[in-house]
Design goal:
This protein is 6% helix and 70% strand. With 251 residues, it is mainly β. Strands 1-2-3-4-5-6-7-8-9-10-11-12-13-14 form a 14-stranded antiparallel β-barrel. A hairpin with a 6-residue loop joins β1 and β2. The two termini are 33 Å apart. The N terminus is likely disordered.
């Protein structure tokens, strides 16, 4: 699982939960993250602004803007996430991001995920995605099984990918504890081959191992903060240690 996706998963949770309420609310979030690289290359830094205005009792649309610096190069990214319940058991999520500069980031990213509750507290997630860089086109899929019990959840996922004319895959295990009002803390571990950016101009399939501790804590009905600590080994190229902090306001 790409390390950026850790944060996408974490930040999408409160947005998706808005779709389950009848009250029209708007979420505004601001976050920053910093990564240190073990090979001595310049650290990565990014800041993200997210806005999720809710104009429908059922659907949620989130818009976001990210400013990032990687390998000494600046990039910008504009994205969106749309969440809609198809039935009492099924929820569809559609996401997309474009980078007008795309010096390091993908030119565009598209993803679609269907969540289906086939039995009480048992869910299956299936998704497809595409990322297009200046030098590579990456197609991906995901299949996950998730179970909720008491105040906890466990999930296992398989993520195949095709890039550079080669097929590869990775696996992921995730556990989470839910407490209070829309608060949670989780642990994610993944391992396998993934398409990774190893320098400013190169995307390769490499062996990747990632672990992350992440969470969201509600301070009140309006305020919450998010956090994450992660470590990723990008094959033999470098180790990436990342800190993520964010704040949200719902009104």
């Amino acid at each position: 699982m790409k390390i950026q996706a850790f944060y996408f998963v974490m930040l999408a949770i409160p947005v998706a939960s808005l779709a389950q309420t009848d009250t029209l609310q708007t979420l505004v979030g601001l976050s920053a993250e910093s990564s240190q690289m073990s090979n001595g290359s310049p650290g990565w830094h990014s800041e993200t602004l997210r806005v999720a205005p809710k104009s429908s009792p059922r659907d949620v649309l989130e818009l976001g803007f990210t400013q990032t610096r990687r390998f000494g190069l600046d990039d910008q990214q504009i994205g969106g996430l749309y969440v809609t319940p198809l039935s009492g058991q099924a929820t569809l999520s559609l996401g997309g991001r474009i980078s007008p500069s795309h010096r390091v980031l993908a030119r565009h990213e598209l993803e679609a995920t269907l969540q289906y509750e086939f039995a009480p507290a048992w869910l299956v997630h299936a998704g497809l995605g595409n990322r297009r860089y200046s030098t590579a086109n990456i197609n991906s899929a995901s299949l996950a099984l998730e179970h909720y019990f008491s105040s906890f959840s466990l999930s296992a996922a398989w993520r195949p990918v095709r890039a550079l004319g080669t097929n590869a895959s990775s696996t992921e295990l995730r556990g989470a504890y839910y407490y209070g009002n829309a608060s949670s803390i989780g642990l994610i571990a993944s391992s396998g081959q993934e398409a990774s950016t190893v320098n400013a101009n190169t995307v390769l399939l490499v062996d990747v191992r990632s672990t992350a501790l992440l969470g969201r804590h509600s301070l009140s009905r309006q305020w919450a903060f998010s956090y994450a600590l992660s470590r990723t080994w990008q094959g033999g190229f470098y180790r990436q240690d990342t800190v993520h902090l964010g704040a949200e306001y719902i009104f």
